[in-house]
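This entry is listed below:
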Amino acid sequence: MNSNKPTSRPCGQDVPAIRQCTCAPLSRRTLSRSTVGVLAVAAISAVAMGGSATFTPNSATSVQPGTPISFDLAVSTVDLSGFSTADIIIGANGVTDLAFVYSQNWRNAFSNVSPVTPDVGFYDQDVFVGGNNGSNPNSVGTTATVGTVTLSTTCMAPGVYTVQVDSKSDGGSSNLTFEGVQEMLLGSSVFTVECVDADANCDGHVDLADHKPFLTCLSGPGVAVSPPCRVFDLNGDGDVDVQDHAAITKGFTNCK
C-alpha cells in the first residue's frame, strides 16, 4: 500500500469539474410561527447582550458524503443570572436533513419542553426547540445541554458547511429569558464534506460522469500515473488498472 496516497482532497483539486450535482434543489422556507406554538410565556421588558450557543462535535467533522455528523448543543447566559425560558432555532444551509433529540437533563429541567418542530426558520434545514417553566419563575441555571443535532450529508457536494443558532438571521428569535429579560443566542460550528476516491468531478458521488476521466487515466499494471489520476488509484499501488476499475464500478452511488 502506498502510504503517500491521499485519502481526501479539496473540491476541484487535480481533476476539473465535469458537471454539477443532480441532487434535488433545496428551497428556502417562509417563517410560520403558528406552527411553533407559544414562544414566550411572559412579556419581555428588556433585551440583554447575546447568550452563547455551543456546538460540541461527538463525531468526525470532516466526512465523505453519506456519513452523518452530530453535535451536542449547549446554551449559556452571559449577563443573566439564569434562565427559565428558551426558544431556539437550529439551522444549516446546504444539508439534506437535520434532526434533533433532547438530552434527558433538558427534559428534567423544564416543566414544559417544546416539541421539536421542523421548517420554521430561514435555513434550508432547521428545527425549533426549547422549553419553559410556565408560571414557575425559577431558573434552570446559567448553562444547560439542550440535546444532539444530527446532519445528513447524503448527496451533498463537497465543501465547508455551518450549523448554527443565530438570532440575527434565523427568521425568528433564538433567546434565553429570565424575569422578563432576554438574551439573544448566537453560536455556530463548521464541518467539511470531502471528495471521495474516484469522484473525479468532486460532486459528492461516483457515477458515469467519473468513468470517462478514469478511462483517460487507465495506465495498466505497474505503470505510474500522474498526480491528476491518483484519485483513481483505489488500491494504492501506484497505477490505474482493471483492479481499480472493479472498485470504482462497485462504488457507484445512486445520488440522483
